[in-house]
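This section describes the prediction task in plain terms. A model, or a person checking by hand, is given the sequence of a single protein chain and must write out its three-dimensional structure as a string of tokens. No templates, partner chains or ligands are provided. The sample shown here is typical of the held-out split.
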Amino acid sequence: MMDNVRLVKASLNVAFEEGTPEIEEFQKEFNSLLSLHDDPLSIWLKSEKIRKESEDTDKVLLTLIAELHRKIDALSVKMTQPGPIHIPLAHSGLIEFVGHGYLMFDKERLRAGERYYARIDMPTFPRRYLPLFFEARCEKMGKIVLMHEDDKRDWSAYMAACERAMIRQMKGKEGEY
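The expected answer:
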């Protein structure tokens, strides 16, 4: 039975494959993608001492410099790491709608009842991949069953941004009449 789910229009690229958190390869990437957000630079910037010392600093400039540092670190890893940073996943697609705890694909790509591991390309700054596990409710819709706490906040923020964009677009159409 389908839950009463509120969805908003989105456009997210996703790679996914049948799997559960018990599969070591998926669990390893799931955990490593979280640790990328908790790199030493992020931890340092979040520290109380640094936040206090940087009160008079331009936050945008500090964020841009920190992101440049992360990109240099990522390039270093790519140049020295023998294999791919992300595991290859069997399928890719487009998520057309998002909801709190839900995602809906643009086409029928899933098998109802099957569990999947997914890596979503989030259009945030800094750009990053959001790993999660979900269970297919039908051929197009999945219910998220496991996501990192930090990622839940980012997912909700992305959904809210999509909702605001949809409301602005609807208000713009009202003015046309």
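For orientation: Helices lie at 24-37, 40-46, 48-53, 59-80, 149-174.
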